């Protein structure tokens, strides 16, 4: 067993009780800090000279993806809501890899902002090859009766409407060989009684991924998804009460939460030529859950 794996196991099984009072959560306030810097990852030029847009790229999985892509040679455009300190930290890490990074703040549930993301990316880098739709929010409710119209609409706007908006904006700029990668969730397959609307959006993302793949395959554009299990990101302390956070991830076969750095390689694979014979598929870094999806 490697030292890196042992580190993940210790950190993922020993999360103290904590809670944040705002969504989206802030990585700067988490303890322990997630492993999202891809410190042990060594790139090999798989994305050399490409440009990637990563929504929700300020922290958590998005941060790991942005840094991994940079280590593989890509320049990065990060879209995020208002977590400015987290986003700046990610930008600095990308630039340490010798790549360029721009930050674009706003609400991906707004179609005009999604168009702005693509416009700023193309005006800065003059091309784009990879879109990672990763932004999401979730809100715990005990009953469907507690989910009001405002929450329902906002969750769907952030989690799935944004993907339609982003793809529509970026598609005219994508050429053969481009990649679209969507973040879904294990909850799309096994459900979650307390995250009903969130789970519904994640199921929609699976169907969206499969259908968009079929629509774009003749253009040579590959569309795939990643369905993480319990990963230690700012969304967790911003969603659950302290007791739930303290037990987070212990119900999967590996008995621990995963780290963002353990998920990002899935995105690298799907963004690169390595997945030349794969489209419409979902990868499952979820701690050993068998979901047969």
Automatic annotation (TrEMBL):
Q: Which residues form the signal peptide?
A: none
Cite the entry's keywords alphabetically. Answer: Oxidoreductase
> Which Gene3D superfamilies does this entry report, sorted A to Z?
NAD(P)-binding Rossmann-like Domain (3.40.50.720)
Composition bias (Polar residues) maps to: 16-26
Would I find Hydrolase among this entry's keywords? no
Example GO molecular function term? oxidoreductase activity, acting on CH-OH group of donors
User: Which superkingdom?
Assistant: Bacteria
Protein name (database record): Short-chain dehydrogenase/reductase SDR
Q: Give the originating organism.
A: Nitrosospira multiformis (strain ATCC 25196 / NCIMB 11849 / C 71)
């Amino acid at each position: 067993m490697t030292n890196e794996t042992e580190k993940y196991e210790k950190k993922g099984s020993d999360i103290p009780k904590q809670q944040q009072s705002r969504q989206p959560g802030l990585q700067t306030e988490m303890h322990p800090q997630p492993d999202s810097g891809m410190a042990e990852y060594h790139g090999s030029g798989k994305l050399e000279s490409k440009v990637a847009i990563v929504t929700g790229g300020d922290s958590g999985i998005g941060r790991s993806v942005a840094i991994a892509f940079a280590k593989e040679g890509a320049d990065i455009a990060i879209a995020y809501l208002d977590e400015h300190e987290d986003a700046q930290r990610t930008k600095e890490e990308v630039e340490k890899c010798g790549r360029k990074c721009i930050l674009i703040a706003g609400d991906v549930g707004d179609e005009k902002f999604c168009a702005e993301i693509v416009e700023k990316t193309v005006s800065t880098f003059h091309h784009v090859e990879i879109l990672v739709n990763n932004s999401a929010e979730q809100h715990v409710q005990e009953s469907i009766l507690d989910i009001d119209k405002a929450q329902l609409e906002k969750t769907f706007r952030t989690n799935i409407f944004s993907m339609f908006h982003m793809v529509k904006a970026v598609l005219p700029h994508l050429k053969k060989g481009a990649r679209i990668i969507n973040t879904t969730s294990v909850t799309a397959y096994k459900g979650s009684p307390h995250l009903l609307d969130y789970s519904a959006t994640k199921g929609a993302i699976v169907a969206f991924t499969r259908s968009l793949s079929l629509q774009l395959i003749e253009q040579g554009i590959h569309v795939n998804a990643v369905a993480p299990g319990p990963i230690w990101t700012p969304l967790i302390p911003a969603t659950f009460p302290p007791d739930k956070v303290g037990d987070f991830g212990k119900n999967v076969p590996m008995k621990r939460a995963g780290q963002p750095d353990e998920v990002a390689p899935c995105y690298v694979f799907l963004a690169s030529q390595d997945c030349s014979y794969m489209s419409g598929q979902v990868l499952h870094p979820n701690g050993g859950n068998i979901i047969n999806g």
